């Protein structure tokens, strides 16, 4: 894969399916995610703990999608799951190359965050 940048990320279609990795850096640790996406279903595994989340993906434009939690393993308590299943993330891919994409996500409470997701396959 090359590091060629696409103008305004015209090739977001390549990110609808595949395997990706994401590392979130916190004050105390790096949290590593393995992400497998098949267009409308995404599975995220926290490599550090083995926890898995299954999400529904709804593509709202070529470079934007909404995520909604469907379930987790091990299962969380009913009250926590009930709350988490109502939190929808709106994600925009803001730049990309063949090897990664940079995104910005917004929760329903308007808190935003962003990072880089790397292509594995």
How would you describe this structure to a colleague?
Helices cover 6% and strands 57% of the residues. β7 and β8 (112-119) form a beta hairpin. The protein has a single domain (7-119), classed as Beta Barrel (Lipocalin). The protein is globular, with a radius of gyration of 14 Å. With 121 residues, the protein is mostly beta strands. The chain has an 8-stranded antiparallel barrel with strand order 1-2-3-4-5-6-7-8. The model is unreliable at 1-7 (pLDDT under 50). The protein has 1 helix and 8 strands. It has one helix spanning 78-84; strands spanning 17-25, 30-38, 41-46, 52-61, 64-73, 88-96, 100-107, 112-119. The termini are close together.
Assembly type of the shown chains?
single chain
Beta-strand percent range: over 45%
The main pleated sheet reads as: 8 strands, antiparallel, barrel
* Backbone shape: globular
CATH homology superfamily: Calycin beta-barrel core domain
One letter per element, helices H and strands E, the order comes to EEEEEHEEE
As a whole number of angstroms, the C-alpha radius of gyration is 14 Å
* CATH topology tier name: Lipocalin
Structural class: mainly beta
Number of domains: 1
Helix content: under 10%
**Spans of 5+ residues with little confidence (pLDDT < 50)?**
1-7
Question: Using DSSP, what is the number of strands?
Answer: 8
Tell me the name of the CATH class.
Answer: Mainly Beta
